[in-house]
Write a structure and sequence with these properties.
It contains twelve helices and seven strands. By secondary structure, the protein is of the alpha/beta class. Helix 5 links the parallel strand 3 and strand 4. The structure holds N6-methyladenosine-5'-monophosphate. N6-methyladenosine-5'-monophosphate binds next to helix 1 and strand 2. InterPro entries: A_deaminase_dom (IPR001365), Ado/ade_deaminase (IPR006330), Metal_Hydrolase (IPR032466).
Length: about 300
């Protein structure tokens, strides 16, 4: 199930819900996780952060903890089978599910992180029309106190409530170890001074932005590739990381996202190499992993022929 053409963003959440209704047993979670890892490894991706909302499915007896432990098992199996990719998990908080679920997600994430460091953080996502991200600020602060990193979907809509919640969250969380998911409208400086102040805060604090080009085009939050905010941030030397969002739902791949960005924004080969190595600064993996990947990437880049 995936989108071949664009649809208003609300349609995405209907499709996610349909897909979620098909994943009901630990076996499903295992197969999905394993096959996603395989796909990314085939693309030569070396480091992957998978994010998913743990589900409690009473009919199959799958608890949220079992859901996450099954993902971890699939990651460990991929490791021991020699897949050349490091995989980490962000436990998603779905903003449609309320604060109590969010607290449970943080408790579980902390517990599992302390066991083997495969869980590294929290993702805050879900339908941006539902609820108020600012209500979750105490949860974000608490998660950071427990050493969990945070990827927060913010400023995804060009609407006042999206702006207001983004301001509130970033005012209180800008010094935490965070990245911004999408941040599609953060840079709308031309629209008014409020957005401009917000963009300045993100810029000054060097908060990395996760850019999902195909997802933005298919959800009609960005109208054409050339207008994508990847360029705005990249031109300012700000960390902006290409991601695939729902690779299946949006029928894309990380290579495709790179291809789109590189062709639309005409990066030179050297800029591309520097960009790829630079993205490592924003990953949530440990300093050792960053260093290991930096060495691997730098060596690999130096062996690539110039074109
Ligand atoms: C379009 N941009 C987006 N904005 C906000 N949340 C998004 C998203 N794309 C994906 N998700 C989040 O990812 C969940 C699906 O994976 P899981 O069932 O948790 O594994 C969606 O339900 C939504 O909460």
């Amino acid at each position: 199930m995936y989108f071949t053409t664009s649809h208003p963003i609300a349609e995405s959440f209907k499709l996610f819900t349909k897909i979620q209704s098909l994943v009901t047993t630990p076996e499903d979670v295992y197969i999905l996780t394993k096959s996603i890892i395989e796909e990314y490894a085939e693309e030569n991706v070396k480091y992957l952060e998978l994010r998913s909302t743990p589900k409690h499915i009473p009919s199959s007896g799958m608890t949220k903890e079992v859901y996450l432990r099954t993902m971890i098992e699939a990651i460990k199996d991929s490791e021991s089978e020699g897949y050349p990719i490091i995989v980490r998990i962000l436990v998603s908080i779905d903003r449609r599910q309320g604060l109590e679920n969010a607290r449970v997600a943080v408790d579980l994430a902390e517990k599992l992180m302390n066991e083997d460091n495969i869980v590294v953080g929290i993702d805050f996502s879900g339908d941006p029309e539902v609820g108020d991200a600012a209500d979750y600020i105490p949860v974000f602060l608490d998660a950071a106190k427990r050493k969990l990193k945070l990827a927060l979907h913010l400023a995804e809509l060009n609407k006042e409530h999206s702006f207001q919640e983004t301001v509130k969250v970033l005012e209180q969380c800008c010094d935490l170890p965070i990245r911004i998911g999408h941040g599609t409208f953060l840079h709308h400086a031309q629209q008014n001074d409020k957005w401009s102040a917000l963009a300045n805060l993100v810029y000054t604090k060097k908060i990395p932005i996760e850019a999902c080009i195909t997802s933005n085009l298919k959800t009609e939050t960005v109208h054409c590739l050339e207008q994508h905010h990847f360029k705005y941030w990249k031109d300012r030397g700000h960390p902006v990381i290409l991601c695939a969002d729902g690779k299946g739902v949006y029928n894309t791949s990380l290579s495709q996202e790179y291809f789109l960005a590189m062709s639309a924004f005409q990066l030179t080969q050297q800029e591309l190499k520097d960009y790829v190595v630079g993205t490592l600064d924003s990953i949530f993996g440990s300093d050792e992993i960053k260093e290991e990947l930096r060495t691997e990437f730098t060596t690999l880049m130096s062996t690539l022929p110039s074109v």
